[in-house]
Amino acid sequence: MLPARRTCDSLVDTYIKTFESVLRIIHVPSFLRDYEHFWEDSASSISSTDETFPCKLLLVAALGSITFTPTDSQQDQATSCREQSNNWISYVKDWLARKSMKGMRGDLSMAQIACLLALTRHTHHQDSAPMGVAWLSEGHGLTHMAVQMGLHREPRVRSPNISVKEAEIRRRLWATMLELSLQVSVDESLPAPIAPESYDCEVPSSIADDDLVLGVESQSMNQSSVLMLLAQTQRLRLRILQLVNAPGSSKTYQECHALASELNAACSVGESKLHSQLSDFQNSLLTSFTKPFVLALHDAFAEEAYSKPEYYYSRRMRMEISAQLLSSTANQGSYSALLTNGSGQFSVTHRQATMSLCLDLIRDFEEEAFPNLDSGSRAKLRDILSNTITTFKRRVEASSGSDTTEEFILFSCALSYIESLQRKEDCEKVAGRINETAKNVLGVCCDTMEKQRRRESLTETDIWMGR
């Protein structure tokens, strides 16, 4: 089921450098040691007696396949791994369902598998989950599992004699499980998965994996630094969910504005300490995990801003946050690969931010309230949109035209309309420009689909001729 060792090495390395540098799920030295034993002892076969590590490995490989940036010679292998990755995820879901039916006991390994599986919701298209693991698709499932395991309690208080290593792993897992639950809640407009005062587990420390036995904290950035930043704002983001999504909750503009300002300030302080040391992937994921909460606070008021000028700030804030969520797409790295190859919640957030920015820019140009003040910022936002549309084009090409064609066409035409408004062109020129754009974009989509049809035709011919 797994790819060859060499390919698997690349996928594991990619996962560790990307997702594991933000969400601390595995203890990297222990995982790599088990990884070596797996290839040495089992000859890459999955043992029926203990499938825990192979299941972790399948999920790590699946996640790594989405952010892997292959060389030209690796393109076919990378595509094959991405296509197989859905089968790897399905295998683990079925295995977990069987374990659930037998009454599995929650331990740290099971929590790690649950986290990895929940993370695939953000990277892969999700089929219906088998009975027994449907809770992982629910907003509060991970948090409930963590609470049942006691991860919400500070390890040193709960078990004074616990080792430094286990205590830190428990803190990391709690922060990660809560973070993934927070993301589902904000994505699906669900209430907070837990009250801010219902846990006392401390924020993960800056101890590097190799130093966990000694418990020596690092003075420089390491793999846990981004999770520390996320954990420091989790209680605040829980308060935001309570205000925005709790049934019967009444929110005022002043409350929303105050919470949004508090979160923006907290993010700025944390990022300023590490910004120069963060990779593009870490910076982008940090933004995509925190800024949608600001958007949730301002979104309703931003819509009313067109009839109620007192909410104009919310409209501008929505444009700013949308631009921040999209500004990383220009980089040709792991995050760009995630947006190009992924089919989960990251791509949904990317699409929603693009739609929001297009509509707000169009309304800005049509109103023309501050033409001199806004000209510079509009040009920058237009450039961000242009780079974003290039990402949608790459998604079309990566999927051979089976995914994102509608968005690619729609947003390309929207950008064309925005450029016409900027030039103050008459209606006839506007219509002509949009028609020309639609024709060109449809040509790209058709060419992509035709290339795929030819490849499939050649494959069928080879099979028929017995090659």
TrEMBL record:
Keywords (A to Z) from UniProt: DNA-binding, Metal-binding, Nucleus, Transcription, Transcription regulation, Zinc
Gene Ontology CC, one term: nucleus
Domain Xylanolytic transcriptional activator regulatory: start-end pairs: 13-222
Entry annotated with the keyword Disulfide bond: no
GO aspect biological process, one term: DNA-templated transcription
Domain of life: Eukaryota
Molecular functions per Gene Ontology: DNA-binding transcription activator activity, RNA polymerase II-specific; RNA polymerase II cis-regulatory region sequence-specific DNA binding; zinc ion binding
Protein name: Activator of stress proteins 1
Species this protein is from: Fusarium oxysporum f. sp. cubense (strain race 1)
Organism ancestry: Eukaryota, Fungi, Dikarya, Ascomycota, Pezizomycotina
